[in-house]
């Protein structure tokens, strides 16, 4: 989960730095917050949990 979260946040932050306008920096901050919220929501729902194999194939 942390690789996914960190990678996406770093990408959005870098994109905001490349465009280098005040609006892009604000957009990157808001986008990072939204992405972080979505990833944490999916994590809390168990979507990042490894699947258990109980032998019923």
Could you describe the 3D structure shown?
The chain is elongated, with a radius of gyration of 16 Å. It is built from two helices and no strands. With 57 residues, it is mostly helical. The model has no long low-confidence stretch (mean pLDDT 75).
List keywords for this structure.
elongated; mainly alpha
Note the topology:
Layout: H1 2-19, H2 22-44
Helix pairs in contact: 1-2
What's the tally of helices? Answer: 2
Helix content: over 70%
Quaternary state of the chains: single chain
Shape: elongated
Query: How far do the termini sit from each other?
Result: 27 Å
Could you provide a short overview of the structure?
With 57 residues, this protein is an all-alpha fold. The protein has helices at residues 2-19, 22-44.
